[in-house]
Write a structure and sequence with these properties.
The structure is a homodimer. By secondary structure, chain A is mainly alpha-helical. The first copy, chain A, contains nine helices and no strands. Chains A and B meet through α6, α7, α8 and α9 of A and α6, α7, α8 and α9 of B. The first copy, chain A, binds a DNA duplex through α1 and α3.
Chain lengths: 212, 212
Amino acid sequence: MGTAERREREKEYRKQMIIEAAEKVIFTKGYEKATMDDVAAEAELSKGTLYLYFKSKEEVYLALVLKGMKLLREMFAEAVAKEPNGLCKVRAIGETYIRFNREYPNYYHALMFYQGLEVNLESEAAMELKTFHESKDAMKLFTSVIEEGLKDGSIRKNVDSEKTALLLWGESSGVLQLIASKGHALTNHFNVEPEELINYFMEFTFHALKAD
Amino acid sequence: MGTAERREREKEYRKQMIIEAAEKVIFTKGYEKATMDDVAAEAELSKGTLYLYFKSKEEVYLALVLKGMKLLREMFAEAVAKEPNGLCKVRAIGETYIRFNREYPNYYHALMFYQGLEVNLESEAAMELKTFHESKDAMKLFTSVIEEGLKDGSIRKNVDSEKTALLLWGESSGVLQLIASKGHALTNHFNVEPEELINYFMEFTFHALKAD
DNA sequence: CCAAAAAATGACCGTTAGTCAGTAAATAGA
DNA sequence: TCTATTTACTGACTAACGGTCATTTTTTGG
């Protein structure tokens, strides 16, 4: 009697449908403007049903954050695979993050939303936990490629792999965030194009990282 | 007949009183949890009156952002005054930003809120405009000390003062943001103390900046 | 076919940002 | 000092939204 298993699958399917509906609505109107009634209508369900699958609006959004984080981690893994040494892999991760920011701005927004959240790993919010683990995995990959760079000599000695990974993560998020919110003003008031600033960031960072 | 002038002063005074009340309430309960009724009660005014002085809750909060930005800019100016050369001044600005983050976490939060806002300099929001100008002034100071460092030889050639100022602003905000939201997890899951990461950031950055 | 369980519904609730018609206070002219 | 007018203030009210729950509909297993 595989009924229970089928029900499980159907439940998971419904959940995915809700996530897709939420994605459409939230990525169009933005998190604040999007209402749970909008999502319910898009999913062709009643609002009450949404709350059988997610315990709050935030939890729904965190499902999108998780999707984004998974996507990013996969992109990192793929980008790293082709590169010859540690430093190139670090660079590839950086470029991938920038590409992610450009190609999936909505997911990037979602990730920034998560970054703004104070982690509460004791909370009941399953999504938050999963997202944290996903980001931890991405960070592990990042750390390991820096270690590789130390071993193969492409990265200068006396950098700490774990701290550097965290540092570059924070730094690049900050720079992209600055550009995302103030990009237009950058062009008009500082004569700096967003693109230029990003290139400058890469140059600056790799100057500090490479051996010799 | 100085009546009009006195009224002007009194109006400004009321506005300041409202800002003080908002500060108490918002810094205690947080922006989301604080209600306009709370602020009104604290200011001993009716809610309607608040809306004669500010056009929205966000506008009230932006007044706090502006206060924070002014404070930060003053701290920068003071910190820079005592230093002997450009590189030291840059370092002093960095350390001041970190101190600001530690000593005025509520104002720092407010600044992050502003950083997350997409600038709209055409909007009617006077506060946003003022805040932007304040931050632009801080940035000018930052740019000028980097130029000073280039002239006095403490900072390596081929750094661009304007881009570097923007870059360091974005980078440091990102790192502090990471620590603010994920600091506890950093300690538990990555064996990195927030303090360490900040020191590492400073070291890493000045390695990339200094001459030779 | 039926009773029990599971899933879904949507009217309803509490809260809160923002409004506005009405009231109170201050001002200026006589 | 009295009064008309402008200015400042009030708080009941509205609209909107996140979240709940008693009720209904659908599915399941015998």
